[in-house]
Hints:
Helix content: over 70%
Number of helices: 11
Shape: elongated
Structural class: mainly alpha
Distance between the termini: 78 Å
Low-confidence stretches: none
Amino acid sequence: PRFNPTPQMYSFLGVAYARLGNIPKAIEANQKVLELQPNNVGAMRNLALLYRDQEEPASALEWVEKATALLGPEQAGDIKQLRTIAAQIYQAQGQTDQVIAQYEAIRQVAPQDLETLKMLSNLYNAKQDDRMVVEIAQALMPLEPDNFQHPLNIAQALQRAGQLDNAQQFGEQALQLAPADQKPAVQQFLDGLRASQ
């Protein structure tokens, strides 16, 4: 103490303890950082990760919320990192709606983040939330114009919603984009669509 340790020193100490697998000491070091710098988002993120690794999800999520509350939309990268930690924790607990909420929060600050949109696409497809499947696929199409999966997702969602003409239109677009090994599956979807019209 007589050397007046700086927040940075405690931060390095936290990393060293974490690498040694001494989670309680790493937590303690990061809490020391926050005593000196109450709004240090890095220390909060570290605590979220440490509590997650110590299988204390409630504490981990609390630190995610405290940290994200301090961030503005211009800090999209930090928000994405924190919300992804929260999404992983909720995923492990089987709380799909909370997982979606985290990725939607990322989409608010990074609307064209490919990774986030793809995660949301999978999640909404699994839930068969057709309105959102279409919305996310439409956001993905300009980012990956050659990916047949996006128009196919729209076509399948429209089919489930009974909009068969529109579904066929997107299905045909998917067929044009599909690689050779995927064309038969898309063709089969289109044949089924025509049969039900």
